[in-house]
């Protein structure tokens, strides 16, 4: 049987791989202004609204994005420092 390593003690979790710097997704980088909607989007959103407009409404402003990133980063650090298998 192999002895436990440091890697075994650290949970492999997406939060721990959070970027060191915040990255914002902007509608301009995600969709063309002329992109069509998926069928489910056509059924559940306004018909006169484009894919771009739909994504634009979901964007966070700079302050809200940074606050969310800081909370996620703090949660990742707290989780990384917990003993394996211990949940709050």
Compact overview of the structure:
With 88 residues, this protein is an all-alpha fold. It has helices at 6-9, 27-30, 39-44, 51-58, 62-80.
**What's the shape?**
elongated
Helical content class: 40-55%
> Alpha-carbon distance between the termini?
31 Å
Instruction: Please state the average pLDDT score.
Output: 75
Beta-strand share of residues: under 5%
SS-based class:
mainly alpha
**DSSP E strands, number:** 0
Q: In terms of per-residue confidence, which ranges show pLDDT below 50 for 5 or more consecutive residues?
A: 4-11
- What composes the largest sheet? none
Enumerate how many helices there are, as a single number.
Answer: 5
- Compressed to H and E, one letter per element, the order equals HHHHH
Radius of gyration: 20 Å
Describe the structure.
The protein is mainly alpha-helical and about 90 residues long. The chain has a domain of about 55 residues. About 45% of the residues lie in helices and about 0% in strands. The radius of gyration is 20 Å and the shape is elongated. About 10% of the residues have low confidence.
Q: How are the SSEs ordered, and which strands pair?
A:
Layout: H1 6-9, H2 27-30, H3 39-44, H4 51-58, H5 62-80
């Amino acid at each position: 049987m192999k002895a436990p390593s440091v890697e075994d003690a650290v949970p492999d979790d997406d939060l721990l791989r959070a970027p060191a710097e915040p990255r914002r997704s902007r509608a301009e980088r995600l969709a063309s202004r002329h992109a069509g909607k998926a069928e489910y989007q056509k059924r559940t959103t306004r018909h006169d609204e484009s894919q771009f407009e739909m994504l634009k409404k979901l964007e966070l402003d700079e302050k809200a994005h940074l606050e969310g990133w800081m909370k996620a980063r703090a949660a990742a650090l707290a989780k990384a420092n917990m003993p394996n298998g211990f949940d709050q």
